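input
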Amino acid sequence: MSHHPYSIELHDSRLSTIRRESAELILLLSPAYIHRDGKGWRQMADLAIAGGMGDFNASELPAHISDGTLKTVKGPYQNLLMLPLRDGGPVVLEVELESGAIIRVQGHAVEVRLFGEPEFIEDVA
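output
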């Protein structure tokens, strides 16, 4: 894949788990739907919220995301998270699941970490 701007579309992603690792709350997108170079890709991604605290029911997971917003000092990201993403806070992530349940997490920094190999899904018109 090239190095042009790309993004995660929350709407077509799946939130698998939320776990605590040290001082971070990690939301695993398994998979994340990534727009890049006019194509759609699947890839695993962690949304790491430093100092993360949240209001959520983990028993709702795994679940598909219907919408989401990330607010940082650089402004709001509505449904699309431009990559690479590493931003200071305060940060607030609000994700609506297809069931209508809301996951709300806040912290003082956010970083998106992609891992595994991307898998091509489709050409995006």
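quick obs: The CA atoms of residues 65 and 97 lie 4 Å apart.
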